[in-house]
Structure formats: C-alpha cells, structure tokens
Amino acid sequence: IPTGYSSEYNYNLVGAEFDVVTADKFMFIAVSFDSGESLDRQRNLAVFKIDLNTSLYISSVHVTPFGTLSGGFQGITINALGEVFVCGRTNGRGFIIKYKNSLMIDWNRGYTEGGWFNFIRVNSEGSLIIAGSATRWGRLGSFLYCPLVCKINGIDGSIVWSRVYVPADSLNSDIRAMDVDFDDNVVIGGNSGPKGFVIKYSSTGVFSWYRQNDSLHGFVLAMDTDPANNIYTGGSLNKLRKLNPDGSLNWSLPAFTGKTL
User: Fold this and answer.
1) Considering Cα of 251, then 255, then 257, then 258, what sign does the dihedral take?
2) Rounded to whole angstroms, how far apart are CA atoms 198 and 247?
3) Long-range contacts of range 136-141, CB-CB < 8 Å, 24 or more positions apart?
4) Which of 90, 92, 157, 177 sees the fewest Cβ atoms within 10 Å?
5) Can you count the helices (H) and strands (E) in the chain?
6) Digit-coded pLDDT (tens) for 19-59
7) Distance in angstroms (rounded) separating the CA atoms of residues 6 and 155
8) Is 70 helix (H, G, I), strand (E, B) or coil?
9) Contact status, residue 15 vs residue 30, Cβ threshold 8 Å
10) What SS3 class is residue 21?
C-alpha cells in the first residue's frame, strides 16, 4: 500500500512483470486504487519497482490522467530497455503511460481510438501492441463495443495503425486475451455475446481471419502461441483448443477435471 494512503481504499492489482533485461532482479507491479471521500473519490494509479533481493521498493503514485471519474490500469509490459508501459482506461478513453526504468514518467497519451485498453505487449521491433474495445455502430444499426487492436510507436506514443472489427452478429464484444506470435502477428480472443472468438491480424495490421466457437458460453479467457505460430486458447466450458496459423481447428480437448490417478 503506498505510503500515506489508507488500507481502507479499494485496491485492484492489475498485473506484474519482471525486468529480465538487467542483471538486477526487479519486479514491477501496477495497481489502481481509490482515495478520498465517497462524494469526492479519485482514481489513483501506482507502479511499484520492487528489488527481489532486498524487498525494498520505489513507487510512482499519481491521479488517473485525463480525468478522475472512473477507470484505471488494465495492463503492464516491459521492453528490451527495461522501460515500463502501462495501459488503461479513464472516462471512456484509452491511455498509455511510459515510465523510464527509474519510474520517472517519460510520456502519457490519451487516445480517442478506443474506450478501453485492456492488454499491452511489446513486439520484436519494440513497438507496442494494444488490444481493447472501441465503440462503433453495428451492422444492424445498434451501438456496440467492438474488438480493437492498435500498434503504437514505443518511442513517442504515436499510432502506427489501428483496427476495429465489427462483428456480423451485432453483439457487444469483450476482449479477454491477447498475444503476439513469433512473426509479430497479433491474435486476440474473448466473446461476442454468448460465443467465444479469436481474431488474427498480420504484423502490418492486415485482417487475417475471425473464428467463432461453436458452443454457447465457450468464452476465450486465455491465449498463447508457440514458435510455429499455432494458437492455444483456454476458457469457459473447460475447453482447450489448438488453432493452426490459418485459423483452422487442430484439436479441442476437455480441460483437466481435477481427478487424481
């Protein structure tokens, strides 16, 4: 808990990353928390750099940028220089904050591209890949939350490209997983209404394919890729799936049931 802040505040641990670049062993933790009275509550952000050898830490604590009504940190990642990037949302806008390894803020930017920035990764060239949600009019004339993917320049925060996928079923989409494969292609997963899905974009932002799960409530909640760019997803209904790079299903298995031999 940051010095000077009450333990009664509502804290939300967003994520943690390890600095594997330098010889020193550090862990970075991103936290969102509320402070102030109920009628004057502020959303605060904190990033901690913890020395894993001594447990000593430094922190950077500040009020949510671009407004204080709602939102907070959603994801954290570290690049090859040990710089820290945190994404989030506040008042309907996505934002990114770049910290130097010392936790001094280098820059922060708000984006009108998407209301929510949920996930952030660094690709092989040092660019940032963001996955989240953007608001768009659906194909049936309804207002939707649609899957959003952005490529961001890691040096100055400018947008390289941005893509929004509007589902044909005109249902709201939740982005629950994201990964960047070994060729810098981007894959995201989640659910559109009651069905799970996976979307793939090339490293240059070209749409590759959209695959929807057959079963109801088969949400995609976790995702990883292997060196051959196969995609592995896990989620509700205890399903584990392997997708080939072209999106075709390789296999689908029930998850571990908890039974012992």
Assistant:
1) positive
2) 8
3) 136/164, 136/166, 138/166, 138/167, 138/170, 139/166, 139/168, 139/170, 140/170
4) 92
5) 0, 20
6) 555 556 787 887 766 655 544 455 667 788 888 788 787 77
7) 36
8) coil
9) yes
10) coil
